[in-house]
Design brief:
- The protein has 256 residues and is an alpha/beta fold.
- It has one domain: 4-Layer Sandwich (Metallo-beta-lactamase, Chain A), CATH 3.60.15.10.
- The chain has nine helices and 14 strands.
- The protein has a six-stranded mixed β-sheet with strand order 1-2-3-4-5-6. Strands 7-8-9-10-13-14 form a six-stranded mixed β-sheet.
- β1 and β2 form a beta hairpin.
- α4 crosses α9 and α8 packs across α9.
- The protein is globular.
- The structure holds zinc ion and fe (iii) ion.
- Fe (iii) ion (FE) binds next to α2.
């Protein structure tokens, strides 16, 4: 049986841990300390680390974890990522024996050019590509690139559990309401997620169905979002990538 745990790290990161009671994998362990404490407390051995992209808040634990557990470290091919043992690109897959896991690798560039996501066992580990009701900032890619990455994610099953690398959901909902405030699914999500956070529970994983219903950054094919973008861009009939780009620009301006 597989258990999935979001371990809080830094201010608002989650290190996702999947384990079978004896062996564990960790996604984006930017800080080794909370992960080592968890593994010690549950007497788990770390078999592998899965990295989504080169940012330090996702890769900072690699050296210490490799040293302590001799674990495999899977990552996109980027020399800025330390201690990598296996490089991956979109279309690759990876199989582990302990715990028994199989993941498909999805290329999801946009936040960074090297960004990949891991899909398997009903889970999507999407790093800084999708957040609860939001998406990553476009530090290296452009809107068309990110929209294509999000289309690949939209093609996954609705029941997919979306495991994001940051707890940004409530502020993302605040922004989503400014452009999609009549969406009843969004208002229901706000109620549920505010209740979770008030009890210090994660809002994640969400499901792809919930993100499709509430996350404006996954709704760039919807007529309501197209209408918003037409107004924002002051031109009629923007295409999907431009709709996505308008929503991203509006969020960047709202963030200030
Ligand atoms: Zn990042
Ligand atoms: Fe991050």
């Amino acid at each position: 049986m597989l258990t999935l745990i979001p371990l809080p790290a830094f201010e608002d990161n989650y290190i996702w841990v999947l384990h079978d009671g004896q062996h564990a994998v960790a996604v984006d362990p930017g800080d080794p300390a909370p992960l080592m404490a968890f593994l010690d407390a549950h007497q788990l051995v770390l078999s592998a680390v899965l990295i989504t992209h080169h940012h330090r808040d996702h890769t900072g634990g690699n050296g210490a974890l490799r040293q302590r557990y001799q674990c495999a470290i899977y990552a996109p091919d980027n020399p800025r990522i330390p201690a990598v043992t296996h490089t991956l690109r979109g279309g690759d897959s990876l199989t582990l024996t302990e715990p028994a896991l199989h993941f498909e690798v999805l290329a999801t560039p946009g936040h960074t050019l090297d960004h990949i996501s891991y899909v398997g066992h009903g889970f999507l580990f999407c790093g800084d590509t999708v957040f609860g009701c939001g998406c990553g900032k476009l530090f290296e890619g452009d809107p068309a690139m990110m929209a294509a990455s999000l289309d690949a994610i939209l093609a996954l099953p609705d029941a997919t559990r979306v495991c994001c690398a940051h707890e940004y959901t409530l502020s993302n909902i605040d922004f989503a309401k400014t452009i999609d405030g009549d969406n009843p699914a969004l208002l229901e999500r706000e109620r549920a997620d505010r209740a979770s956070r008030s009890q210090n529970r994660p809002t994640l994983p969400s499901t792809l169905a919930l993100e499709k219903a509430t996350n404006p950054f996954l709704r760039f094919h919807e007529p309501g979002m197209t209408a918003f973008a037409a107004g924002y861009l002051e031109r009629p009939h923007p295409g999907p990538a431009d709709v996505f780009g308008a929503i991203r620009a509006a969020k960047d301006a709202w963030d200030g």
